[in-house]
Amino acid sequence: MKKNESIWSVSEVNDFIKPNEKLSKSNLSQGVYRQMIERVLLEHLDELKNHGVENVGGHYYFEGTDVGHPLSYVNTHYGVATFLMNLFRVPKNVDRSEAIQMIEDGINERFDELFFADSGNPDYDVIMGLLEKSKNMGDKNEIEAKKYLEKYHGHLIESIIIVSGTGGKLDKSGVDIVVNTKGGKTINYQVKPFQFYKISPDGNAVIYKVKGITPVNELQNRWIFVNGDKALEVKSKNLKPGFFQNDVMFVPEEDIISKSPNLKAWVPKN
User: Are the C-beta atoms of residues 213 and 181 closer than 8 Å to each other?
Assistant: First the structure.
């Protein structure tokens, strides 16, 4: 027997197949993993229906409800992609299209077993564990943003709900967290990681290297930019596009440091 030495890590998958990358008409090599997962799910709509899951506008819900099924998140989840790369023994010397084809073939062969195991299948348990954690708790950035809100606004908050990954209207509009206040007010938050910011001479904050460009829209009331345990909270109306979209995401038009008690102005040496 020949031992397969290939063990993929999340960082390697991140550079190789990029699960959260969207399709691009100008670059056909982008978004192919995401497209493959969506194609597989559409090919198995009958099995999904048999398990009480329905497709509504490209997202998956427990049938007859507005509760998103964890499968809504499978096409963008790095942890699941990493697990599938190792599960189907994808070698490290193949190209991206070969790797994705191996995963597609493997999922099609074991679809029910991987996503709807009636007994304690270990592979099913791993996948659903990853998806359920993201759906119910949010990923790292949402978790840190939630901690920030609870610490600094907790006395005003009735409930905090993480909606990213559910496929609902708010999720599709770039809303990650919904806060309901004790006064009956609803505040929708978008959460984005960033690397650093600096205060410009006119007192504005320039936020650099924000992951993922998402426009401000009418459903977003505030944004939280996260770096580790640091957070910048900004009202949507005080955001505008940065000068260089690749490096600068937004230039808030009012002082935001005073709104983020856990943060002082900081800039890396470079």
Answer: no
